[in-house]
Amino acid sequence: MNRMIALWAHPRSRSTVLERVFIERGDFEVFHEPFAYMAFDARSAIPHDDLNGDMPRDYEAIKAMLRTARQRSNVFHKDMCYHCVDALKADDAFLREQQHVFIIREPARAILSHHAIFAHMPVHAIGHQALHEIFCAVTRITGKIPYVINAEDLARHPEYTLRKLCEYLQLEFLPQALSWAPACPEQWKAWRCWHKDAENSTAIRPDPKETGADCLRLPPHLIGHYERHRPFYERMNQFTQQVQP
Questions:
Q1: Which residue of 9, 30, 67, 167 pairs with 15 in a disulfide if CB–CB is 3.0 to 4.6 A?
Q2: In angstroms, rounded to a whole number, what is the distance separating the alpha carbons of residues 89 and 66?
Q3: What pLDDT, in 10s, does the model give residues 47-63?
């Protein structure tokens, strides 16, 4: 039986570079934010490039696409929970079909990165609250705490973090999947403007711009975004995997 792995994320969480590892592995069919197509069309104010006109646009059709893909191969999909949170919370059967991984990033860093691309982002799109809701739903239906990765651990200790993730998922660790030539994978083209750093990367590394306290200073109009989402980050961060000293 082929498997389906879901990487649940919020915007600017380093989830795309983690997705790149699964693209490089070559043993999964990788879908990049298929549930985002529920929220966007060509008239959307949210920055996008060439939307794939062949992608389904409603929850049931997207779910059917993933299930069909699973019949022919292992499936990995990375998604933002806020796009589909209500439908997903009501769909225990679909959640039970998957192995779940969650990635979180300190909200101030994520908000500043998000704001640099989409200055008019709504507060719910910061995404930590919806991510926590799905985390709780998976915990409820499985009786187990799902796997949580902190983005800073991924950036600072990529090999160790990926080894532990593969161990949890019962996957072979493939060290060659941790490096690549700069490129824009086909899956990213609709949202290319969001992924320039990932596109130009060759491996997972810390961002050299994120040093010192200055990088965490939020402008006044974003403080409310931070205060709303920080508690959900803190709740999930209790369950992140311990990194190697």
A1: 9
A2: 17
A3: 566 666 678 989 999 99
